[in-house]
């Protein structure tokens, strides 16, 4: 399963539901986009260290971008950017999930519902 950035943030904050939800999954992946977001939005070095620690200790594998993901994300922006407000980061995360044939776990289902070929697993904190 691929986890959206929001679930990783809940984990970092110690949300027990996020911890239980996360521990139920055998395979744990994130998109390279989620990795970038974790470090881009960290407010200080301590938050970056915590993010690194969470990724390492929980054996989360970062799935890289490839040409198919890029193309698929651009298609999603064309199809859903204006009509549903899909942004580039979410398009890349969704494209990664579809490309790797993995469900996407997210607490922000409204960002992704329009994408028909995406398997969503909704998390409620």
Could you outline the blueprint of secondary structure elements for this entry?
Blueprint: E1 2-3, H1 5-12, H2 16-23, E2 29-31, H3 32-40, H4 45-57, E3 61-63, H5 67-84, H6 88-99, E4 104-106, E5 120-122
Helix pairs in contact: 1-2, 3-6, 5-6
What does this structure look like?
With 125 residues, this protein is mostly helical. The chain has one domain: 3-Layer(aba) Sandwich (Rossmann fold), CATH 3.40.50.1010. It has six helices and five strands. A three-stranded parallel β-sheet has the order 1-4-5. Strands 2-3 form a two-stranded parallel sheet. Helix 1 (5-12) crosses helix 2 (16-23) and helix 5 (67-84) crosses helix 6 (88-99). The longest helix has 18 residues, at 67-84. The protein starts with a strand and ends with a strand.
